[in-house]
Every structure is written in structure tokens, then in C-alpha cells.
Design brief:
Strand content: under 5%
Structural class: mainly alpha
Largest sheet: none
Order of helices and strands: HHHH
Number of strands: 0
Shape: globular
Number of helices: 4
Number of domains: 1
Length: 100
């Protein structure tokens, strides 16, 4: 298992694990769903809905990895950096730095 001294070192590796466009799209959809669930839970005052966030976020991502990318999600080896990577990649897609 490769070790990283910082997120700055990890992120290029993370992007390399997301070369397949469909995988990136599924990550993006999952992240939007997480945002939607959090907003809906707050709006409707239904905190139990927050239990759906890992299903939406990881479910879409893992389908992308196993179905299209054909690799093991970085979540299992680097859980915190991977979670941060999901949101940085999401922001990079919105900024046009990463294509989907």
C-alpha cells in the first residue's frame, strides 16, 4: 500500500484512479445526491435521511470503480484522503478543471 505525506501528494494518484469518464460521472452524481439529501434533511427536519448519504455517495462511486474503472476504490486504503478527494474532484468538475 502506497503512503502519502499529504493530500497534495495523494490527489494526483486519486485522479489517476478515476481515468474513466463514466466513473467520474457516477462520482459526480453521487456527490450531488449527497448534497441534495443533506439539504432535504435540513429543510424537512428529518435527520434520519442523513443515513442515506453514504449509500448515495459511495454507492455511485463504487459502481463506477467496479463497473467501469475496474479498480478498487481508494476509500479502502486511504479513507480520509479519498473522501476529501471526492469533494475536491467535485469542485474541480464544477470549475472545469476535470471533465465528466
Amino acid at each position: 500500500m502506497r503512503e502519502f505525506g499529504s493530500f497534495r501528494e495523494f490527489y494526483p494518484y486519486y485522479l489517476g484512479e478515476h481515468r474513466n469518464r463514466r466513473c467520474r460521472r457516477l462520482h459526480f452524481i453521487g456527490s450531488w445526491l449527497v448534497i441534495a439529501i443533506v439539504v432535504a434533511a435540513a429543510w424537512m427536519r428529518q435527520p434520519l435521511w442523513l443515513l442515506l448519504t453514504p449509500i448515495a455517495g459511495y454507492g455511485f462511486a463504487w459502481v463506477g470503480h467496479y463497473g467501469f474503472e475496474k479498480n478498487r476504490p481508494a476509500t479502502f486504503r486511504h479513507p480520509l484522503y479519498s473522501l476529501l478527494g471526492d469533494w475536491v474532484m467535485f469542485a474541480d468538475v464544477l470549475r472545469g478543471r476535470v471533465s465528466i
